[in-house]
């Protein structure tokens, strides 16, 4: 009885939840971006322009200006540049909803909000990363994938349906440099490049020639320090959310690479409520995260279709 009275007294003295919305939302978004891969491989230039599900951002693109030869006394030809708009539509949403029981809050020796916000961020990351990494491979242009990748040379085999590139420790450096050269032929900037690999590719890297520190451009071998970092201008990311397909008897992985200018991503926690539960002593906590993504410059994306040898 005394314990129940103490709990009821604690509930009565607990301040109103006026700040819960702001605190929860901030913590969840912060932890979400710390964990997600997509927050690193895409630009978020237009995130401040969205506020709800269904919002649409019109993104102006830069036209290609034509350069012509000049001849003395000749007439100039004037171009009328076209700048088509790309659209970023906030058409996806994910939510969480759970009960924080007052007894748990009273008896817990940890901050449940911090703990559960951390897990919420991780689960949101897994769901959204999986969604995005499964969709964007279809946006990669033919010049940046397949058995004849390369806008200029068409000479790089990045794997194709029925004939995935078989990755081993002996050829993974060749594969990565081929991806990098595909980017060079598309005139990607030197900085801002990225590549997302499954964990088994990291294993091959750690056992490849890049364990030689000089080849990796580092003072310490990646086999010793455990870091991958930047290889041939790609910032390397490891993710279990890389999409897969079954090709014949093999599981094949869609290894995405590119430049940050190719993708744009925006997300907002548009709803964050803490309500008193009606059927128990506790609070109902629920949050809605709306988001959208778009391949606004597909030529800045590449795809390796690979399997483990």
Radius of gyration, in angstroms, nearest whole number:
25 Å
Label the overall shape.
Answer: flat
Rounded average pLDDT: 77
Distance between the termini: 66 Å
By secondary-structure content and strand pairing, the structural class works out as: alpha+beta
CATH topology title of the largest domain? Major capsid protein gp5 fold
CATH class of the largest domain: Alpha Beta
Annotation field: number of helices: 9
Give the strand tally.
12
The structural domain count equals 2
What's the CATH architecture of the largest domain?
2-Layer Sandwich
Strand % is: 25-35%
- Helicity level: 25-40%
| SSE string, helices as H and strands as E | HHHEEEHHEHEHHHEEEEEEE
Contiguous runs where pLDDT drops below 50 for at least 5 residues: 1-24, 213-217, 221-226
Summarize the biggest pleated sheet: 7 strands, mixed
Describe this structure in words.
By secondary structure, this protein is of the alpha+beta class. It folds into two domains: 18-62 and 82-135 and 263-296, Major capsid protein gp5 fold (2-Layer Sandwich); 140-262 and 299-308. Helices cover 30% and strands 28% of the residues. The chain contains nine helices and twelve strands. The protein has helices at 2-13, 20-35, 38-41, 102-107, 112-135, 172-185, 199-206, 213-216, 222-225; strands at 56-60, 85-89, 92-101, 165-167, 193-197, 230-231, 234-238, 244-247, 250-259, 263-276, 282-295, 301-308. Strands 4, 5, 6, 7, 8, 9 and 12 form a seven-stranded mixed β-sheet that branches. Strands 3-11-10 form a three-stranded antiparallel β-sheet. Strand 6 and strand 7 (234-238) form a beta hairpin. Helix 2 (20-35) packs across helix 5 (112-135). The protein is flat, with a radius of gyration of 25 Å. The chain starts with a helix and ends with a strand. Mean pLDDT is 77; it is low at 1-24, 213-217 and 221-226.
């Amino acid at each position: 009885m005394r314990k129940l009275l103490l709990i009821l007294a604690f509930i009565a003295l607990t301040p109103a939840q006026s700040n819960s919305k702001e605190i929860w939302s901030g913590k969840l978004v912060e932890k979400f971006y710390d964990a997600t891969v997509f927050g690193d491989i895409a630009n978020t230039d237009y995130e401040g322009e969205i506020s709800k599900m269904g919002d649409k951002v019109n993104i102006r693109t830069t036209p290609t200006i034509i350069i012509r030869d000049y001849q003395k006394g000749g007439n100039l030809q004037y171009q009328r540049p076209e700048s088509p708009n790309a659209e970023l539509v906030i058409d996806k949403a994910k939510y969480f909803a759970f009960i924080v029981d007052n007894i748990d809050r009273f008896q817990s020796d940890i901050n449940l909000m911090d703990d559960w916000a951390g897990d919420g961020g991780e689960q949101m990351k897994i769901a959204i990363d999986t969604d995005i990494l499964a969709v964007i491979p279809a946006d990669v242009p033919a010049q940046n994938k397949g058995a004849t990748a390369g806008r200029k040379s068409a000479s790089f085999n990045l794997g194709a349906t029925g004939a995935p590139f078989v990755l081993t420790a002996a050829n993974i450096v060749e594969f990565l440099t081929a991806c990098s050269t595909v980017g060079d032929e598309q005139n990607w900037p030197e900085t801002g490049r990225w590549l997302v690999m499954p964990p088994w590719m990291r294993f091959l890297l750690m056992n490849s020639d890049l364990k030689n520190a000089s080849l990796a451009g580092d003072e310490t071998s990646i086999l010793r320090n455990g870091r991958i970092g930047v290889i041939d201008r790609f910032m390397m990311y490891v993710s279990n959310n890389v999409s897969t397909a079954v090709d014949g008897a093999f599981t094949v992985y869609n290894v995405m690479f590119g430049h940050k200018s190719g993708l744009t991503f925006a997300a907002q926690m548009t709803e964050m409520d803490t309500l008193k539960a009606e059927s128990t002593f506790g609070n109902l906590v629920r949050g809605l995260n709306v988001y959208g993504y778009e391949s606004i410059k597909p030529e800045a994306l590449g795809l390796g279709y690979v399997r483990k040898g």
